[in-house]
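Allow me, if you will, to draw on your knowledge of protein folds for a short while. A protein sequence and the structure tokens that stand for its backbone fold form the material at issue. I would ask you to consider whether the tokens describe a fold that such a sequence might reasonably adopt. Thank you for your consideration; the sequence and its tokens are set out here:
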Amino acid sequence: MGAMPLKRRTRLGQYRIEGLLSKGGFAEVYRAYDTVEGIRVAIKLPLPEHVNPGFLTQFRREVRLVAGLDHQNILPIKTAGLIGEHFAIVTPLGIESLGDRLQRRMARTTALGFAEQLLEGLACAHRRKIAHLDVKPENLILFPDRRLRLADFGLARIVHRTLAASGSGTVGYVAPEQALGRPALHSDVFSAGLILWQLMAGSVPDWPFRWPYPNAARAEAKYSPGLVRLVRRATLVDERKRFPNAVAMLAAYRKLGKRLLA
């Protein structure tokens, strides 16, 4: 049994809880009001069973590693540490996740804008040889003016190691070699490729990732052959044939220029 969710108006230091946004197998996320700065924030509370001295040491190491990722498409951490009896990770509060936004119709230009911003954020990390390891729509947070930011860099890496150590299976947007315990930068490329396909076709390919992917005709009718080829290369099961990192994938995306739409 996990701890009970925090009630509305509960105080955590300078933050006043306003409601539960989401809960997963690793953490709860709350909407809260910062009584000092007068702004609303998101507070992620890892579940108590995951918080131990080893976790705290590992998380501090990860935060130092990713602190230099100052980029408009990466979600910054406002603060992270113990607040009372809770370990809390505080970040700016977005409007919704890309996972939420994908439930509604989306213009092609909007989809292409989100795709480029995802690759921009990942490329910033990959230039520093930092992999994310949990690139999925729920970790892409949308802000006003259609700004997309990739969240949970340090935490995602810890969660990955926790799952790998426990032998748990992985599904969804995870690359095949990562599911087998061999993650690398090209694993993020695979995940990003699946998200691009979902933006283009409205569905997510699944194992064994054979072409044509679901809704291929729909994607090919709306987007250029060059963009379809780019996504196919990014999502090849043989990681040696993919883009080696998001820097190379972003360069290929930009090379298409205006030749993105059918």
